[in-house]
């Protein structure tokens, strides 16, 4: 509705405002979600959102009111005010300065607040400037051809209160959780400081909102400097962003889900254990590893074939003497309860069987003259297929289907999805690579996911090392790329992963133990906690590597995806010495015991968009001590995980958030929250706590998710009422999307000390045999 001079009119979304020659557009998507777009070009301000978005705008419940002071656009959840530009009387010095220097836009003063009066966000300025020598960015004009539309650098600034804290923004490996006071370079960068970076331009703050920046070019975010937060994108023709208000962080993630798509359920096998290394070189070796797990009766679900199984990059074949019959191999592995994943790169070398076809079609990332982009003289792995082109994307999947999936492989590892040949200065079908720098992982994983949905009768599973807005809807899990095997890396992985999942993408993992090759020698400051002498053929002179790998594996068991990988001769749980082996087995078995809990969390993510690996600020927003705490986290509603990341340490300090009591998982000791405690952490113990008022369903021992897993125990940690939705489905198909699943609602009444349950029976035994109440 429009209210003007006391008259109410039907409102057609969006609201379009003129401000001194610029256009401001307000476009609602829900009562708590609004998009703001500004441009010096009206048609671009009115343009649809860019890559990653799937939602349709709706103005239902929104009203528009105009006055001499400006415009107010309001719903039951948000009030958006756009003031009339009224510059005050300038100082004499300002008049003098203006003779030589001036801005690119007339400015804007936009505030977004709740009906209760809380200001969520206030924009104080924006820019849309031609690249120039004064700003030092004129060189970007070399990345476009004369026929391309003009390039502009675009940006906006917002007020940053002293107590506002910032999270998300994809993957940054520098080791901090809260971005306040840190410059963030939001683009896919394999050589970034600390480790490869990934851009997901979605920011959440403790002020009750999330903000999505709708620009896929290289973007710099500077949160909290000079009492403002600035966003600057290298190329664009508008400023476009979404604001999602939320009374909880989960409500914000539900808004992100609405805008960019739901996170589908992965195959149940993906929540078990994924065994990988760089690399299993033959069919015989892979089958031997599978037999090793089954003979030891150790659980594992997915085995991974890394690169160089092919004769040429892009050939999509198998070296015949190493992989004589992949289809028969996969049949054998399936009979043993394993699924297989295989790496498929987007690169094609000259002389490979499809190169000339792709070149003729113009389906490569290419230079302005049409020449395929390559990495010569140092990178001879060929050129990247341009999956921003729908025809090329369809062909890519069809070729994978006919050459790879047809041989019985279940899942695809989409490596090098930055792409590894950075697109700045090159061209996609979508347009200049500089302008669309970050979209490749979105469209590339979509090419594979869409193919799975068309042609395969089981759920898609894709592994990608990069992401972008909306990539979570592509049945994809993401890993932190080729990290180093060091204690420092392990420590930084924790906040890295927490910010990634805070970006609305739940399925994050890493190479347990690090991917890079081990140094020839490494002598720790403290005596190693595990003897490396019987693992020297694998760890060489890295004296403390069995200790490092064990600590990393303990942490990995409490990641959304549990996956070991690395450039070592051997990488199975029996590969790091007799002292390490029983500890690794302990956490491997614990992961499978927790599968009923984990799989239920995954379904909640599908329904709500909220991640289940959660920085503490999400669940304890009123506790200021957790705002920057990046070395511990919640794993679902029950677990607090505090990995040990110091070599030689057998204790660590753990902060238990206020507002709950906590149980030590290993000892069942109950501790009040709101305090830091010293916790014993011998090498076989991951500091692990359970929140009082938790229900924890535990499964019986299985060797893979291909087996039916019965509920062995329902463990209750008393101290508050508790609820848990225990979820089950076939674990393989998309029948759950049609409601073909079982949900049993468990409730613990703390006053009466009774467990009740509604819905399908999740166990056949008497409750008295299943229920375990800690401390009773």
Describe, in plain words, how this protein is organized in 3D:
The protein has 776 residues and is an alpha+beta fold. The strands form ten sheets. An eleven-stranded mixed sheet has the order 2-1-6-7-8-9-10-11-17-16-13, with no helix packed on it. α7 crosses α8 (440-455). The radius of gyration is 27 Å and the shape is globular. It starts with a strand and ends with a strand.
List the main descriptive attributes of the protein structure presented here.
eleven-stranded mixed sheet, 15 helices, 27% strand, 46 strands, 776 residues, 19% helix, eight-stranded parallel sheet, alpha+beta
Task: Provide a concise account of the structure shown.
This protein has 776 residues and is of the alpha+beta class.
Please give the share of residues in helix.
10-25%
- Give the biggest sheet: 11 strands, mixed
Provide a count of the helices: 15
The protein's oligomeric status is: single chain
Strand content: 25-35%
Shape: globular
Write the layout of secondary structure elements.
Blueprint: E1 2-4, E2 7-9, E3 15-19, E4 22-30, E5 33-39, H1 42-45, E6 63-67, E7 70-74, E8 79-83, H2 92-98, E9 110-113, E10 119-129, E11 152-159, E12 166-168, E13 184-186, E14 202-205, E15 209-213, E16 219-225, E17 228-236, E18 239-245, H3 249-260, E19 273-275, H4 283-295, E20 302-305, H5 326-335, E21 339-343, E22 347-348, H6 355-361, E23 383-384, H7 390-403, E24 411-414, E25 427-428, E26 431-432, H8 440-455, E27 462-464, E28 476-479, H9 487-502, E29 508-509, E30 521-522, H10 536-539, E31 541-542, H11 545-556, E32 562-564, H12 581-593, H13 595-608, E33 613-615, H14 616-619, E34 633-635, E35 639-641, E36 651-656, E37 661-664, E38 670-672, E39 675-680, E40 688-691, E41 694-699, E42 711-717, E43 722-728, E44 742-749, E45 754-758, H15 767-770, E46 771-773
Helix pairs in contact: 7-8
